[in-house]
Amino acid sequence: MKDLKAPTPVSIPEETLRKAEARGVSRRDFIKFCTATTATLALPMTLVPKVAQAVEDNRVPVIWVEYQSCSGDSEAFLRSNQPTAGDIILDFISLEYSEVVMAAAGHLAEEAKHAAMKKYAGKYVLVVEGSIPTGDGGVYCTTGGISAVDSCKELVKNAAATICVGSCSSFGGIPAAAPNPTGAVSVMDLVPGAPIINLPGCPVNAQNFTATVVHFLTFGSLPATDRLGRPKFGYGKRIHDNCERRGHFDAGQYAEAFGDAAHRDGHCLYKLGCKGPETFHNCPTVRYNEGVSWPVMSGHGCIGCSEPQFWDTMTPFYRRLPKVPGFGVEASVDKIGLGLAAATAVAFGAHGVMSAVRGGDKSDKD
Amino acid sequence: MLKVTYVWEWPVRITHWVNVISIVVLSVTGYYIGDPFITVQSTDQYVMGWMRAIHFAFAYAFSLSILVRLIWAIFGNEYAKFKAFFPWASKEGWKHIVGTFCYYTFLKKELPHAVGHNALAGMAYSGVFVLFMVQVVTGFALYGQFAPGSGWDNVFGSLLVTFGAQGMRLTHHVVMWLLIGFSIHHVYSGWLMDIKEKNGTLGSIFGGYKFVEREDN
């Protein structure tokens, strides 16, 4: 009888590997890239040949625009090494426009963007980095005299799909933090109903971005998303539930201060305000910088950067709970609550004394 | 002449005591989950694990108790029915509200006659029920986060988008303190009424019977 537990042998066709080699990508790197990306997408390994084929055969035109951003997502992507950006990604996508890496400048660059949009209308993938300021008619961010609002709307409407990289384009991010002086919004809020996928994170994890593009190449569609428009493969599990420090959490071992004995022993960062229990991301499994590390691994709590409005809702970063509206920064909800309970006890104690000393109650006469 | 009256039927008493135990256990374990005041040094402990397991078990007990009590507010006797919790819906009820308020604030020396809950108590309990529901909803919404797209996350998960997980967590915490404040008030006023009404208020929640003046009936 066939051993059901034995893995099904899969192999990438020799021809595909040769093509990759011809382009200067070693077959070892190519196989690593295809298997790692398939794993990130939570797809079975039997799909590796299909992924390899799609990566090799399709060249999707990509327009990468930046609005209110710090280029951190571009940086994260360009500096990624695992899927060697220069060797593989830029090879299987056709990057038509990108402020950070393109050689063209000024009107030439703008013309190239427009030409690409017209030429590949309905076929290109749009990547948006940064939030879009809608305040005061959109004057806070313009390129070539066109506001981010108008530019983004036009590009999204003509795109086959839009990938929002980073928290700013996904949820508004830091520019949209209170008091949001520029009226910054996410792409999803600017163009509701368009085929948009959000890859929040500060910055986006290059691995998740690559996997999303590969999914689009392989299946011609965007991956399944959660209720915030994030792909389930990357944001379907809570950080806390996959955290390598989870054992310390359940045991009751907590670092109380940075640098104390528990912190040096790698205990749980819960009491230092780690937001892993309210953040959905695959950081613990995929990590950053070619799987080298991620914040919690290096000893700092999660700040919930891939959740909506994280700058407003996840602060104070070193406390478990947000501050109570209307009370000072030093007042935690527990101090206020304890005060409330004490005040209640005192008030009713006083009422009791009053009730006891007061004479002439009707019930006393019965 | 006093008449022995069966006021609190057994479902009312049982749900009351399940609520008492649940609120105490949920507050202690819940406080620990929010601010782990016991820190251990050894990995063979399971303090937070047990605190959470107990918290979740009692959360189910508490929710079930609330559900039973709500059903009993339809089928129970007149002291258990919804009407007792909304005195402001009737003119007679308003008289009781004002009368009880004046007694509590030492403006009058006569307490309006009540067999079950007095008007203000009934009103307070309707408010407390709202707080209970807030705890159940925020609690299970936060609990559901461990398995997105299934179970409790399907029921309450969309609230996490509307109010934010941290907003829900803060609410869950604030309401705990409000309920602790309520408990202090509740025990005090039960005690006060036991003295003033002389009808066995405190004992009635154990046995169900109160001693009511016959002429008042």
Strand count of chain B = 2
- Envelope shape of chain A: globular
The CATH top-level class label of chain B: Mainly Alpha
Helix content of chain B: 55-70%
Order of helices and strands of chain A: HHHEHHEHEEEEHEHEHEHHHHHHHHH
Taking pLDDT < 50 over at least 5 consecutive residues as the criterion, the unreliable ranges of chain B are: none
Q: Provide the low-confidence segments of chain A as ranges.
A: none
**CA-based gyration radius of chain A:** 27 Å
What is the CATH architecture descriptor of chain B? Up-down Bundle
> What is the domain tally of chain B?
1
Strand content of chain A: 5-15%
Interface with most residues: A-B, 52 and 52 residues
The CATH superfamily label of the largest domain in chain A reads NADH:ubiquinone oxidoreductase-like, 20kDa subunit
- Give the oligomeric state: heterodimer
Note the total helix count of chain B.
Answer: 7
Largest sheet of chain A: 5 strands, parallel
Tally of contiguous helical segments of chain A: 18
Name the helix and strand elements of chain B from N-terminus to C-terminus, one letter apiece: EHHHHHHHE
Q: Please tell me the overall pLDDT of chain B.
A: 91
Q: What's the total number of strands of chain A?
A: 9
Structure commentary:
The complex is a heterodimer of chains A (366) and B (217). Chain A is α/β, with parallel strands linked by helices and 366 residues long. Chain A has 18 helices and 9 strands. In chain A, strands 2-1-3-7-9 form a 5-stranded parallel beta sheet, with helices on both faces. The model of chain A has no long low-confidence stretch (mean pLDDT 89). Chain B has one domain (2-216): Transmembrane di-heme cytochromes, Chain C (Fumarate Reductase Cytochrome B subunit). Chain B has helices at residues 10-34, 47-75, 91-104, 119-143, 152-163, 165-196, 201-207, and strands spanning 2-6, 209-213. Chain B has a two-stranded antiparallel ribbon. In chain B, helix 2 (47-75) crosses helix 4 (119-143), helix 4 (119-143) crosses helix 5 (152-163) and helix 4 (119-143) packs antiparallel against helix 6 (165-196). The termini of chain B are close together. The mean pLDDT of chain B is 91. The chains are: A alpha/beta (366), B mainly alpha (217). Chains A and B meet through helix 13 and helix 17 of A and helix 2, helix 5 and helix 6 of B.
